[in-house]
Design goal:
- The complex is a heterodimer of chains A (245) and B (362).
- In chain A, 73% of the residues lie in helices and 0% in strands.
- Chain A contains ten helices and no strands.
- The N and C termini of chain A lie far apart (84 Å).
- Helices cover 34% and strands 19% of the residues of chain B.
- Chain B contains 13 helices and 13 strands.
- The chains are: A mainly alpha (245), B alpha/beta (362).
- Chains A and B meet through helix 7 and helix 8 of A and helix 2 and helix 4 of B.
Chain lengths: 245, 362
C-alpha cells in the first residue's frame, strides 16, 4: 500500500462536489443549501468574486483613462466629437458574445481579449458623460477664470473638471454596473469571474444553490460598487449639497 | 468730479504709495492701494470677414483712481472696448497703456492677474468657498498662505461680510452678497485697474441702488482706476467721474464729466442718448448738502424730510409728489438743518446756467 487513498486528497473546485460534501439538500437540488455555500465559499465563490472585481476594475480604469482623453480632445476640438461618438456607439452595439469570440482569433482566449471587450463597452457611456460635464460648465465661470489670468490648463484642472465631477461620477456609476453584469459572460473565452460558477450551475440541471449564490453575489457587487461611487461623489463635491432654499 | 485728488499725472508708475509688502500686513483702514493711469491710443478692433470695425480709433485717458464709465446703446462696442484692455479680445490697431506700459508688451495671463475683473453674471466658482474664490488671483500669483489669509480677512471686512462667510459656497449667498464677493475677488491682489462689465445689471432695482452706493463708498477707500460698462445712462451719471459715450460702430461720441455731458452734449446723438430729461438728471449730481437752504426759522417741521445726502433730483421728486410742499433737510441726528423749496432749485439751475455760460471751454 504505497499510495494514499484518492478520497483524502482535496477534490479542488469541481462543482458541485456531490461525492465529498453531498448533503440531502444538494442531492435533491433544493432551492438554497447554505451548507453547500459555506463549504464552497473559499474554493469557488470567493475566488470568482475576487476575479470579477479585478476584471471590472481594470476595465473601468482603462476605459475611464481612454474616455477622459477622448473627451478632453473633443472638448477642445469640437470636430472630434462626432467621429468619436460614431466609433464608441458602434463598439457599444456589437453583441457582447460575438465580440468576445471575435477577439479570440487575434488576441487569444485570455484576459487581454476579455478586457478589450469590456473596455470597449465603457467608452460610449464615459465619453458622453465626461464631455457633457465639461460642456455644462457655465460660460460666465469660464470667462471669469480666463479674465483672472488662469491658463487653459489651470482652468481645466481647477474649474472645468471639478465642476464636471457630478456628470463624470454619474457616468462611472452606469459604466461600473454595466461592466459587472457584462463580466459574467467573460467565462466564454476566459475562465474567470462570477460567470464561471453561474455557467457550471446552469450545466448541472441547473444547480439552484450555486446559481442563486453566484447571481446574488453579482447583484450585491453591483449595488455595493454603486453605493461606493455615490459616497465618493458626496465626499468630492461638497458644494452640491449646500443649496439654500 | 473732485473725487480724486489733483495732480494724478505723477501716478504713471503703478503705485500710489505702495511700500514693499506693507499692504498685506496693514490693517484694512490704513491699507494703501495701487491705481494706475489707463490710456487708450487710437485703439481699433476689426473682426475678420467684417467690413466695419467693431471699435474705431478709440482714444481717451482715465486718470489713476478715477471711474470711467463706458456707456452706449447695444452694438456700440462698449463691452468689446473693455475686453480689449485685458486682452480678452485681441487688439487690431493702436495701443493701450496701463501705468505707462503697453498691454501688448505683456504676457496676457500676467496682465490679467493685475487687472480686477467683474462681470454681470459674477462668475463665482460654484465649487469653491467664498474664501477660495477670493483667493483665486493671489493663489495664481503664488502668495504664501499666511499672506492670503490676512488679505482675505481684510477684504471680507472691506465688503462688510462676516468672517465666517468665508466657508460658505456661492449657492448659499444672496445675489447682493455674491456681487460683493465678486468685487472682493477682483480686488484681492490689489490691482491698479478694475474692469466691471454691467456688474449690477442682474440685480433688482432696490438692491442695485444699494450696491451702487456701497461700491462708491468702497471706491472712495480703495481709489482704483475703474472702467465700468453699462447701458444705463443714469447708472453712468451716478458711478462715473468721467463718461465715455460710444455710438454704433465703436465711435467715441463724447468723453467728459457727467456734468459736462448733461450740460453740453457734443451732438444730437449724445443729447438723445442722455435723454430729454437731462436737465433733471443734472440735478442728481448735486446733493442737498451742497445746496443753500432756507433757515428752518421755527417753521412747522413738515411731514417731508430727507437726509442731506439725498440728491436734489430725488428731493425735487419728493417735493412734486407732495404738491410743492417744502422739504426739511435733516442731519445724521435727525435735526432739521434747513428747508428746500422749488424756488431754491430754480435758483440752482439759474446759477449753473450762468456759470456754464462763461466758464465752459466747449
Amino acid at each position: 500500500m504505497t499510495f494514499v487513498a484518492p478520497a483524502l486528497v482535496p477534490a479542488g473546485p469541481v462543482i458541485p462536489n456531490y461525492s465529498a460534501h453531498s448533503s440531502q439538500c444538494v442531492v435533491h437540488n433544493h432551492f438554497f443549501c447554505t451548507g453547500w455555500v459555506s463549504h464552497n465559499w473559499g474554493s469557488v465563490l470567493w475566488p470568482a468574486l475576487r476575479q470579477h472585481v479585478f476584471l471590472t476594475l481594470i476595465a473601468v480604469a482603462i476605459g475611464f483613462a481612454i474616455s477622459l482623453a477622448l473627451a478632453l480632445a473633443a472638448h477642445r476640438y469640437r470636430v472630434l466629437e462626432r467621429p468619436t461618438l460614431l466609433v464608441t456607439t458602434f463598439l457599444y452595439t456589437i453583441p457582447s458574445l460575438a465580440l468576445f469570440e471575435l477577439l479570440v482569433a487575434p488576441v487569444g482566449a485570455n484576459i487581454y481579449a476579455a478586457e478589450i471587450a469590456l473596455v470597449s463597452y465603457t467608452l460610449l457611456i464615459l465619453f458622453r458623460n465626461i464631455l457633457t460635464g465639461l460642456r455644462e460648465v457655465p460660460a460666465e465661470v469660464l470667462d471669469a477664470a480666463e479674465g483672472m489670468g488662469m491658463t487653459r490648463r489651470q482652468a481645466l484642472w481647477r474649474v472645468e473638471l471639478p465642476l464636471a465631477l457630478p456628470a463624470i461620477v454619474a457616468g462611472l456609476r452606469i459604466a461600473v454596473v454595466t461592466i459587472i453584469a457584462l463580466a459574467t459572460i467573460v467565462y466564454t473565452i476566459y475562465d474567470k469571474g462570477l460567470g464561471v460558477p453561474i455557467h457550471t450551475a446552469l450545466g448541472e440541471g441547473p444547480f439552484k444553490t450555486e446559481l442563486l449564490a453566484a447571481g446574488a453575489l453579482t447583484v450585491l457587487l453591483a449595488l455595493a460598487a454603486d453605493a461606493l461611487l455615490v459616497l465618493a461623489q458626496r465626499a468630492l463635491t461638497p458644494w452640491t449639497r449646500t443649496r439654500v432654499s | 468730479m473732485g473725487r480724486t485728488p489733483a495732480g494724478n499725472s505723477f501716478l504713471k508708475t503703478a503705485h500710489t504709495a505702495h511700500s514693499e509688502g506693507s499692504s498685506a500686513f496693514a490693517k484694512p483702514g490704513e491699507q494703501e492701494s495701487k491705481a494706475a493711469e489707463l490710456e487708450l491710443l487710437g485703439v481699433s478692433k476689426r473682426y475678420p470677414g467684417q467690413r466695419e470695425p467693431a471699435i474705431a480709433g478709440l482714444s481717451f485717458t482715465v486718470p489713476a483712481g478715477e471711474v470711467c464709465v463706458l456707456v452706449g446703446p447695444s452694438g456700440s462696442g462698449k463691452t468689446t472696448a473693455m475686453r480689449l484692455i485685458n486682452r480678452m479680445i485681441s487688439i487690431s490697431g493702436g495701443d493701450i497703456l496701463l501705468g505707462g506700459r503697453s498691454v501688448l508688451a505683456r504676457d496676457a495671463r500676467e496682465l490679467r492677474r493685475e487687472i480686477g475683473y467683474v462681470i454681470q453674471q459674477i462668475g463665482l466658482f460654484p465649487h469653491q468657498t467664498v474664501g477660495e474664490n477670493i483667493a483665486t488671483v493671489p493663489g495664481l500669483l503664488g502668495w504664501p498662505k499666511q499672506r492670503i489669509a490676512v488679505r482675505l480677512r481684510e477684504l471680507l471686512e472691506l465688503i462688510g461680510l462676516e468672517q465666517e462667510m468665508a466657508g460658505r459656497y456661492p449657492s448659499q449667498l444672496s445675489g447682493g452678497q455674491r456681487q460683493r464677493v465678486g468685487v472682493a475677488r477682483a480686488l484681492a491682489a490689489d490691482p491698479p485697474l478694475m474692469l466691471m462689465d454691467e456688474p449690477f445689471g442682474a440685480i433688482d432695482p432696490i438692491n442695485r441702488t444699494r450696491l451702487q452706493d456701497e461700491f462708491l463708498g468702497l471706491q472712495a477707500k480703495v481709489k482704483k482706476t475703474v472702467v465700468f460698462v453699462t447701458h444705463d445712462i443714469d447708472e453712468a451719471i451716478k458711478m462715473g467721474d468721467r463718461i465715455a459715450i460710444l455710438r454704433e460702430g465703436g465711435h467715441l461720441a463724447q468723453y467728459d464729466t457727467p456734468r459736462e455731458i448733461l450740460t453740453h452734449p457734443a451732438d444730437g446723438f449724445v443729447a438723445e442718448f442722455v435723454g430729454a430729461d437731462r436737465g433733471i438728471k443734472r440735478l442728481s449730481l448735486t446733493t442737498l448738502a451742497e445746496m443753500k437752504l432756507l433757515e428752518p426759522n421755527g417753521t412747522k417741521p413738515g411731514a417731508l424730510r430727507a437726509p442731506a445726502s439725498t440728491s436734489v433730483r430725488d428731493a425735487l421728486s419728493m417735493i412734486l409728489t407732495a404738491n410743492g410742499e417744502p422739504l426739511a433737510v435733516i442731519d445724521g441726528n435727525d435735526r432739521v438743518q434747513g428747508l428746500l423749496t422749488l424756488t431754491l432749485i430754480e435758483r440752482l439751475l439759474a446759477e449753473e446756467a450762468a456759470a456754464n455760460g462763461k466758464g465752459s471751454g466747449q
